[in-house]
Amino acid sequence: MSQQPIAAARPVPLKFEVGARTLMAISRSLVRVPLSLDDAREGRLPQLPAMSRDAHGYTITSLPEDRQEAMVYASGGMLPFVRQRYTRYFIDFGVGFEGWLAGLSSSARQGVKRKAKKIAAESGGDLDIRHFRKPEEMEAFHDVARKISLRTYQERLLGSGLPDSQAFIDSMQALAAADQVRAWLLYIGGDPAAYLYCPVVDGTVIYAHVGHDPAFNDLSPGAVLQLEAMRDMFEEGRFARFDFTEGEGQHKRQFATGGVPCVDLLLLRPSLANRLTTVALGGFNGGVALAKKAVTGVGLEKLAKKVRRG
Length: 310
Hints:
It is built from 11 helices and 13 strands. By secondary structure, it is an alpha+beta fold.
């Protein structure tokens, strides 16, 4: 009988964060166990792979919230800790573009249309949106999108901008050769303002990399580009869903047709060091939540947001 292969564990910083700012982090060697959108929608429990003796445990992403207890039981006594709770939002392409648009709140619908008109006026009367899907187009897309990414707070504070490596460009081109990627750039007055990069997996379009130049914040270029990208994908008629992936976001809530309440769950070996880590993280996160509630109560949330993002 063959043994189950050992899954690779990688260092994962367990961050003590206030908004986008990391005050400190404790590194743990973890095996990542991601759930797909279909896994989450159908409430599937992942099978935990074998891990090496020096690994500290698993990090399970997009576990349906109502399956948390079953997952902890299936782990056989590992120490659970919820890193974050969120709704994994998605768009069902089956509703059609007009049905999807009609399903948005009136404020969201009118707001993005108004911004689109302003952007079009800045660009001579029409929206300047450029589409990329062929292998020979991917490097040109990357060159421009990378310059936008360098200006975003996600890049500056979180290190989560568009990857800057030849390996990533090669992967973009390979996906394009298989017709498994879509990408867009939005220009305003001739200047690149926003990008969206979406690989396609089994008919599901993945919200992988997105960003906009903060100089255009008042025009909401990301929302306008998202709307036009959705128009393109609905018109293609070949995709099942658009997956907004892990994490919350106002734009995700506004544009989604559905969502699954999820948690990112740590399952750690029940060692003393891991127990102390979870207690410290839990206490810190609880304190941040109380402070956030207090700040919101006195009407200073906008100032706090600016401080968190620098």
